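Subject: Re: docking follow-up (pyridoxal-5'-phosphate)

Dear J.,

Thanks for your patience while I sorted out the input files. As discussed at Tuesday's group meeting, I've set up the holo structure prediction with pyridoxal-5'-phosphate included as the bound ligand rather than trying to dock it afterwards. The sequence and the ligand SMILES I used are pasted below, so you can double-check that they match what you have on your end before we go further.
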Amino acid sequence: MNVAFYGHVRQYRNIKSEIDKNIKTVLESGQYVMGPMLKKFESELAAYHGTKYAVGLGNGTDAIWLALMALGIGPGDEVITHPNTFFATAEAIWIAGATAVFVDCQAGSKCICPGRIEAAITRKTKAIIPVHLYGQCADMTAISKIARKHKLKVIEDNAQAIGARGPKFRIGQLSDAATTSFIIQKNLGTFGDGGALVTNNAAIDAAVRRLRNHGSTARNVHSFGFNSRLDDLHAGILSAKLKHIDEYNDARRQWAARYTQGLKDCRTFDLPVELKGYRHVFHLYVIEVKKPQWRDQLLDYLVKNGVDAKTHYSIAIHQQRGYPWGKKARIVGSVANAEANAACCISLPMFPELTAKEVDYVIAKLKAWDAKYAHLAPAGKGPAQGGACGCSCK
Ligand SMILES: *Cc1c(COP(=O)(O)O)cnc(C)c1O
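The structure tokens for the complex came back this morning:
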């Protein structure tokens, strides 16, 4: 049996008529850029988040750096984030001209550890970018408290967690802005690239609208800007899919629960942690091997057995070649949790259109591997979830 990592075509076939209808509407409207479909999708996206504004953009990376630009953050400024995220989080910071400052993640959630942030704050610090990694929210209550105390801006990198929630907060409500990506593999993905920013701040909304369209406020009137618009065709596809996002996330949660139930007795790897009171939307279901030398071995075994497993992300940002790229980034304190995550992570197939048969096949293969090596497994949690950081993180 082969189990794919993504199910893009299955998803398309399931709601083909709805997607095709919106594509046809756009094609026949004659308006393909900044047209009525984009406007419609933006209002639907704002309503979904319960924010006042949503702006469609070219991709998720642009969304982060345009948010930074709208907040006036650039050269000489520092922005705090964590190094176990997709490269683009940091990339956006230095496209804006600022310096990325990395602190460790929590051992359990893999999101930024609030307990590490204050030690990294200097006179140059302007913002924090928590990433809702793998589909689970960072602790926005703690992060926004630190931000208020030190007068810092907060931009949520929500590329991976649309539809997730915290115990007492929603995405976009405890920050200056939340950005997202609609590249096909994200929980809400178009057939290509796209991104957006949601905010309750009228000035940020207006600035990002201007920046995405050559700094234009009216025809022929320009200030400095760029070209980063969400095409109406993509907006139409996303509008059709947004109606199903809660159902898609529920399906992801259901497959995650099935993996967790099926794998709970395995001893060679740790399972993902869903924090109490959080709604994790499992963009990725990431297990962590208890011995780093097992990672590539298990990954090869899965791939050889037809399971398209991957790693997210096996090289942390500060471990990429050339770091710190001419002082574009630096680390404060130990990032042992992030490094152990990079060394031990394996992402299992995860998409709403999986079947029980496929999930059970992956579970069976993992259990067979585990049975072979369980006697060599260290007791307790492995290095990635062991929490070497000694703070209050979960
Ligand atoms: C996908 C992703 C991005 C970048 O989005 P693009 O649309 O590819 O530019 C940024 N941050 C995180 C955490 C992501 O997963």
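A couple of observations from a first look. The domain at 245-376 is CATH 3.90.1150.10 (Aspartate Aminotransferase, domain 1). The chain has a mean pLDDT of 97.

Let me know if you'd like me to rerun anything.

Best regards,
T.
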